[in-house]
Amino acid sequence: MTTSPLLEFTDLTKRFGGVTALDAFSMHLDRGEILGLIGPNGSGKTTSFNLLTGIYPATAGTIRFDGQEITNASPRQVYEAGIVRTFQRSRLCLELSIYDNIMIGDTSRLSQGLWANLVKRNSFRAEFDASFQKARDLVATFSGHLADRMFEPVGTLPMIERRRIEICRALVSAPRLLLLDEPSAGMTHDETDQLMRDILDVRARGNGLSIIIVEHEMGVIERITDRCVVLSYGRKIADGTYAEVASDAEVQNAYLGVD
Ligand SMILES: Nc1ncnc2c1ncn2[C@@H]1O[C@H](COP(=O)(O)OP(=O)(O)OP(=O)(O)O)[C@@H](O)[C@H]1O
User: Fold this and answer.
1) ipTM for this model
2) 46, 182, 231, best to mutate for ligand 1 pocket (most atoms within 8 Å of CB)
3) 26: CA distance to ligand 1 center in Å?
4) Is residue 39 within a helix (H) or strand (E), and if so which, with residue range?
5) CA distances from 34 to 96, 100, 130, 209 (A)
6) Measured in angstroms, how far is the CA atom of residue 43 from the centroid of ligand 1?
7) Single residue among 142, 174, 206 that ends a domain in this structure
8) Are residues 73 and 187 in the same domain?
9) Per-residue pLDDT tens listing for the chain (259 residues)
10) What GO terms in the biological process aspect are recorded for it (predicted)?
């Protein structure tokens, strides 16, 4: 069994002109771990996700995933390595169905192009049925009644269900690392509570999934994370359990301006 970290940042640095968004940030994520990446506004959390997923190149430093260096890999290479993300703002196509939205996340879904599918109807049908079943099974693990509405447009669903669909879209490619960017944004307290249960369920189902969650709701972080890394002005200022980092003087100072 491999015990090396699944993910490692070493001295990861990103400058945008004169702004240092990440400053020699080093951290690791263990296999199967749920890690909270927290810090005040502008501390570099989203930039970390953007470097990890190939949206921006790093100015310096390295990213290793499962023993391979992936610094500056393209978004496609990152996806193929098994890293997927959800976004702060919903990226669902509201006019499209639940099924369509989920299958956008699975680029392995159909092996042939349009013309081959028109000619070879039977093999297309078999591939379609398998992909539909896969999406439906995944949705059913979150919500039985949603699984019966796979062809309804996502725009008719409440926020919690939309978030679930986004998570299903991320999970349909069977990733090893799920990045959640503020999953509670725009949801009520009760919806957030349900979503936390969903996330813990996803992890409990196993498959070795690891999760990094960026979240401003500290109740969420406290309840679902195994460990937290705290950023302030692009620098790591604490690394430990929620209880440890919450009682750290530098963390309290960064959040509250308390000395
Ligand atoms: N594309 C960009 N161009 C210029 N500056 C940027 C860019 N992206 C981020 N920054 C700057 O980098 C710093 C870190 O921003 P980042 O969005 O990573 O913070 P964050 O911790 O995710 O904040 P929030 O909690 O508000 O989402 C900020 O000063 C931000 O203004």
Assistant:
1) 0.96
2) 46
3) 18
4) none
5) 31, 29, 31, 9
6) 7
7) 174
8) yes
9) 557 899 999 999 999 999 999 999 999 999 999 999 999 999 999 999 999 999 999 999 999 999 999 999 999 999 999 999 987 776 778 888 888 888 876 765 556 666 666 666 666 677 777 777 888 888 888 777 888 888 888 888 888 888 888 888 888 888 999 999 988 888 888 888 888 888 888 888 767 799 999 998 898 899 999 999 999 999 999 999 999 999 999 999 888 665 4
10) D-alanine transmembrane transport; L-alanine transport; L-isoleucine import across plasma membrane; L-valine import across plasma membrane
Asked whether residue 112 falls in the same domain as residue 147, the answer is: yes
Indicate the residue among 153, 174, 195 that finishes a domain: 174
Range of the structural domain that residue 152 is part of: 92-174
- Same domain? 217 vs 197: yes
| 21 Cα–ligand 1 center, Å | 6
Number of domains in the chain: 2
Model's pTM, two decimal places? 0.88
Cα of 156 from ligand 1 centre, angstroms: 32
**How far apart are the CA of 56 and the centre of ligand 1, in A?**
12
CATH code of the domain covering residue 29: 3.40.50.300
Tokens (6 digits) for 30: 């263990």
195's CB contacts (< 8 A; 6+ apart) are 160, 163, 164, 183, 184, 187
Kindly state if the Cβ of 151 falls inside 6 Å of ligand 1: no
Does any domain span residue 87? no
Minimal-distance CA residue to ligand 1 atom 4 = 16
d(CA 41, CA 34): 21
Ligand 1 touching residue 19 (CB < 6 A): yes
Ligand 1 pocket mutation, candidates 37, 45, 232, 255, criterion most atoms within 8 A of CB: 45
